């Protein structure tokens, strides 16, 4: 029964989100937490791993969550569920897009979808950012060494990203800074 639930959940996530993996994160977060498959902290860790490993973030997330909830078969089913809607839709779109790409309805539809995608990504950034910077809730105690480290790493990565530093270096550098920050917190705080 868990396999059917995993498949249907990820099928819904794949079918009702537009704009790629980051746009899927809010719905994926809601579904995973509502089903009690993992805690918010575990989910944040999985997102960090999914982002820093090769491949699309949504597929990586589905695979990781599937493994966590249903083992290897769960991973296969979750991945299939999240990919299947896009696969079917892109086959249909590819068939008809060339013919209708200049249609007023198609252009208007795409114009309406673009802000939704940006909004969904922004929602994921705010929601996940709150969990990263305030894992224990937004209290005065949350403004500790871990918070300061996270803000410094975040600020540095944003600055370097705007300077067009290769994302691979940003990921590796952030992991290194996180390790150094963790050791510093253990030693001095």
Question: Which features does this protein show?
Answer:
single chain; 189 residues; mainly alpha; 7 helices
Mean pLDDT: 88
Low-confidence stretches: none
Q: Count up the domains.
A: 2
List SSEs in N-to-C order.
Answer: HHHHHHH
Give the CA-CA distance, first to last residue.
47 Å
Main beta sheet:
none
Residue share in β-strands: under 5%
> How many H/I helices?
7
Radius of gyration: 19 Å
DSSP summary, beta strand count: 0
Categorize the overall geometry.
globular
Helix content: over 70%
**Class derived from helix and strand content:** mainly alpha
Q: What does the secondary structure layout of this molecule look like, with pairings?
A:
Blueprint: H1 2-15, H2 21-34, H3 40-52, H4 57-100, H5 104-133, H6 145-162, H7 167-188
Helix pairs in contact: 1-2, 1-4, 2-4, 2-5, 3-4, 6-7
What would your notes on this structure say?
The chain is an all-alpha fold. Helices cover 82% and strands 0% of the residues. The longest helix has 44 residues, at 57-100. The chain has helices spanning 2-15, 21-34, 40-52, 57-100, 104-133, 145-162, 167-188. The radius of gyration is 19 Å and the shape is globular. Helix 1 crosses helix 4 (57-100), helix 3 (40-52) crosses helix 4 (57-100) and helix 6 packs antiparallel against helix 7.
